[in-house]
Design goal:
Two copies of one chain form a homodimer.
Chain A lengths: L1 E5 L3 H4 L2 H15 L14 H4 L2 H17 L2 E5 L6 H10 L10 E5 L5 H10 L5 E6 L6 H18 L7 E5 L5 H9 L2 E4 L13 H9 L4 H15 L8 H14 L4 E6 L5 H15 L7 E6 L8 H6 L4 E8 L26 H18 L4 E6 L4 H21 L11 H10 L9
Parallel strand pairs in A: 2-3, 2-4, 4-5, 5-6, 7-8, 7-9, 9-10
Antiparallel strand pairs in A: 1-10
Helix pairs in contact in A: 2-15, 4-9, 5-9, 5-12, 10-15, 11-15, 12-15
Chain lengths: 428, 428
């Protein structure tokens, strides 16, 4: 389903020592042992989820579409990027008078953004899905404070029927509020961290509300779960991707540039950056994840990638089949010198551009990983995201890093709370 | 106007050797000597441009706004990012039924994008600004081939009055076509490279058409030109920024993370990545430019920046005064624990978040540069972009790199043309 290739010598990487290392990681992973094993709920999530859970998501999405023109999804980090990645990959670039929109808030703290958002939805019917495990993560809490008031001012009692909460099952500020006001609730599972949560209600409710087929998304994820659970270092693309990037890291390639020729995958790249950056970037280790979109960025960072400092590895995420496409035609006047391309589809042009770019960067000293995805639809995106999550676990364990914690995000939060004199932090 | 600070010891950086190096770069730059001196047209562009040039831009923008509902700007790289950066910085996040829209094409090769774009503008009146020095850069040429046909099919003869061309003054495919069809023409100057072209017609026409004040933009740029031309290593922020980042590069900080708390500056960051990456990334040298938006990415790459591999330097682009803003209020039910913030504006929250983040990342071993901009409006953005261009010249010359060429972008192009058997490339 996903094909991973490497520009160098695979046999050298997959030597017996590395394979036995990967084997033991595999065994620990599936035995749910090893660092962070309390957060492995995502590993068999696609095969474990119940029909009634999924039906509830779909029914609620339908209810939201009936009652509203706009769903505002409030979340940050893993409570934002999974849904955003899938929706951006699947929705059209332009829409005339969209029937239903999914917009986001709480992914930053911008007064202008929130104000303009509230103004924008003035003449539309609104529903809200607020996603936060604790309910006290500052950014979504700020956005929800404004939007909750907006909804109560606008809808009165009825606001409660338009607010959907995705939070902890048993505790927390948002759970208490939801119970008090009678908001419909969905669960952020205890054993799935934010950046691994796209297939839980965190990702599924916004994706379903946006009109996409969550059955197919989960079918793709389950296919990945099944296929990628086998230990086969040479043929399991998740293990292969992890092994290659780790070998390159050991050789001093410490920046990974994830390149795609499909602009719709920009937020899949953002999601990938969180997944890998937050999983691996600890103890002064880890590959720094960076993204580019080609051919756009061939006219920007391309020069650096070709000729700059040689600590870059490039991984190309290539889509094999186009969705909508156009074909170049012959023009009477060939001033632009493009007649030689008549009959070529734009997708085929991009595939050739990939080949030409890959060769050029390789000759510039940038080692490469190719990741080929058949097409961009719910099923294949579901497969891809599961693939990246699983590979990330292998990759982190190869660095002796716990993939499932994020100790480094506390320090800036504590600083901010101290500076703002949050109760409990004033004295320090 | 712009204040640059450094987390380390400035005196150590600005030692006598470095200062005399910078002095000689300064002298060569303003004497228009040194590598790439044929491309220094941008240096005194703001003070050199004529009233009639500017009046022509503004009149044309007005004409476009009268005849059309949508301007499609076709360009890539420097013919795209300057206008995009300024427009995104200044336009609102959301607009209900916008009166006039500026959309982009030719910045990549996506059949779905172009098809959906043509469908989107079906019921709107359309004008086009195609920007390409040669007229044969593949991506914009492809987009224009489709859109030119679209315009001719839709408007017939009248299409020629709706197409505006920004190209070479004396030669090239687009110039010839423009003369033949009678398109109104603007000039891409010979002595200004794409990534330094935002203040020429390349950037100005789309920015003016989008409804922004190009007089103020250029006033800011001219203020920067005047203020930053003086050699004063300690007080000239452009020289200071270049000196600090070069010193950090020499210490092994080879990735610069440009961080902002203002999401509207995302495309200023993209523009900056092209400017620095394409100017410096040569001869296996140069700082790799990366961008993050906070607080969004504190919940993503933040973990890596705090604790990952220590080759990162962080430059914060901080906006001191908010435009539109909101203020937090006290809520009866304090479940979200935010009442302690009542009376704080969201902009003030971001300034505190900056302080807390800066301290945290500093203690994690990430050296920092602070770049403070008073506010986001035409004048200050004009100043900022000039500042970054000038600093980039200093910074590249400190690396003994010609800031104005891009030798590494030929190889992939040649490969692509060979693979596609473009006339002239078939035999190889």
């Amino acid at each position: 389903m996903i094909n991973v290739t490497y520009s160098g010598n695979e046999q050298e990487i997959l030597n017996s020592q590395k394979v036995s290392r990967l084997q033991s990681i595999h065994d620990n992973l599936y035995a749910k042992k090893g660092a962070g094993h309390d957060f492995l709920g995502w590993l068999d999530w696609p095969s474990n989820l119940s029909d009634s859970f999924l039906q509830n998501i779909k029914d609620t999405a339908e209810e939201i579409q009936k009652q509203a023109d706009v769903l505002i999804v409030i979340g940050i980090g893993g409570s934002y990027l999974g849904a955003k990645a899938v929706i951006e990959a699947l929705k059209p670039h332009f829409e005339k008078n969209p029937q239903f929109e999914v917009l986001f808030a709480g992914q930053h703290v911008s007064g202008a953004y929130l104000k303009q958002l509230m103004n924008y939805v003035e003449d539309k019917e609104v529903a809200i899905n607020v996603i936060s495990k604790s309910g006290t993560t500052t950014e979504p809490a700020i956005a929800f404070r404004f939007l909750h008031k907006y909804m109560e001012d606008r809808y009165g009692q009825e606001a409660s029927e338009r607010i959907y909460v995705t939070t902890d099952e048993n505790k927390g500020a948002l759970l208490n509020l939801a119970k008090d006001r009678g908001f419909k609730r969905f669960v952020v599972p205890d054993d799935v961290g934010g950046r691994y949560s796209v297939f839980t209600a965190v990702g599924l409710l916004p994706i379903a509300a946006a009109g996409f087929d969550v059955n197919q998304l989960l079918k793709g994820a389950k296919q990945a779960e099944d296929e990628l659970s086998t230990f086969d270092a040479e043929n399991n693309p998740a293990i292969k991707y992890a092994a290659i990037r780790h070998a390159l890291y050991e050789q001093g390639y410490t920046n990974e540039v994830l390149a795609t020729f499909e602009p719709k995958l920009n937020y899949v790249q953002e999601w990938w950056k969180q997944l890998y950056g937050e999983s691996e970037g600890k103890e002064q280790k880890g590959i720094f994840p960076v993204s580019v979109t080609y051919t756009t960025d061939l006219h920007s960072l391309g020069q650096y990638i070709q000729d700059g400092k040689r600590d870059l590895l490039e991984s190309f995420l290539i889509v094999e089949e186009a969705g909508e496409d156009l074909e170049l035609f012959e023009a009477e006047q060939n001033a632009d010198e493009l007649n030689y391309l008549a009959g070529t589809s734009l997708h085929d042009f991009n595939l050739v551009a990939y080949e030409g770019t890959s060769k050029a960067h390789l000759s510039g000293g940038v080692p490469q990983i190719g990741i080929r995805l058949q097409k961009v639809d719910e099923y294949h995106i579901g497969y891809l995201l599961y693939f990246y999550m699983l590979a990330c676990a292998y990759s982190s364990y190869l660095l002796d890093i716990n993939p499932f914690n994020q100790p480094g995000v506390e320090e800036y939060k504590t600083n901010i709370f101290k500076l703002l004199k949050k109760p409990g932090y004033e004295t320090e």
